[in-house]
Write a structure and sequence with these properties.
The chain is of the alpha+beta class. The chain has helices spanning 11-15, 29-38, 86-103, 174-195, 197-207, and strands spanning 19-26, 45-52, 70-77, 110-113, 117-120, 123-134, 140-148, 214-218, 223-231, 237-241, 244-248, 252-255.
Length: 257
């Protein structure tokens, strides 16, 4: 049996000070990254696993993590103040969206769904989990967990899902996805640091699904319907309905009525 290819960083990511730790199996790359942060772990450190035993998404939802897909988390130390940490989720979305667009031949059916999903032809291909913690020594650590269905996806979900292997992508191995992702993340993190969130916002909107269309949003406090107008200067979704314009910080989006 041929050994699996290693997970490698793009040369541009190495030049920008990124490093990578790889694991055959781990509970959760996000949990491991958070533990590393609390232990004084390094900035710009990727943790990548071939499989997870306790993978999770937003709100503690289970993220099925068999071998063959990508499970990666990036630890950033003091990249932004804690109040601006949510903007890193959009940096991750743009980086992942651009990496996957390249793999599917720039197919515009690959889009970003607010706030953290990647879709292909309306089916979920990947997701992002952003977490953070204040550090005992001062400062703030952000962890960006990224999962991509490379060769398989759950079949018992309440929404459609797909895998990169079903999109016609030229390369589907998680190592190939990670290599491109590491380059894109280094690029867009530098854009964010130099130009601020406005540059990321514009790029994110160029990849967004549902702009101008009717959507439903579920938050812990309420359910809303209206048209998805844009995201504002902080990343909040701007919804227009009969009551006016509403800015939403977090929620689950359902496309269409």
């Amino acid at each position: 049996m041929r050994a699996a290819k290693p997970f490698q960083l793009a040369e541009s990511a190495i030049r920008d000070g990124f490093q990578v730790l790889t694991f055959e199996t781990i509970g959760s790359t996000n949990d491991a990254a958070m533990a590393l942060a609390r232990a004084g772990g390094p900035d710009r450190c990727w943790l990548v696993a071939r499989a997870q035993t306790s993978g999770r998404g937003r709100h503690g939802r289970i993220w099925a993590s068999p071998p063959g897909n990508l499970y990666a988390s990036l630890l950033l130390i003091n990249a932004v103040p804690s109040e601006l940490a949510p903007q890193l989720g959009f940096v991750a979305g743009v980086a992942l969206g651009r990496a996957l667009r390249a793999l599917v031949g720039q197919d515009t059916r690959l889009k970003l769904k607010w706030p953290n999903d990647v879709l292909f032809d309306g089916a979920k291909l990947g997701g992002i989990l952003l977490e953070g913690t204040a550090l005992a020594a001062g400062g703030f650590a952000s962890v960006l967990g990224i999962g991509v269905n490379c060769i398989s996806y759950p079949r018992d979900l309440a929404y459609p899902a797909t895998a990169l292997s079903e999109t016609g992508a030229a390369e589907c191995a998680p190592q190939d996805v990670f290599l491109r992702l590491s380059a894109e993340f280094a690029h867009w993190l530098a854009i964010f640091a130099g130009q601020g969130f406005s540059a990321i916002r514009g790029e994110w909107l160029s990849l967004a699904i549902g702009l101008g269309a009717p959507i439903k949003i579920s938050t812990p406090a309420r359910h809303l319907e209206g048209r998805f107008q844009t995201i504002d200067a902080t990343g909040r979704l701007i919804l227009e309905n009969e009551g006016g314009v509403v800015a939403i910080e977090a929620g689950d989006v359902l496309l269409g009525h």
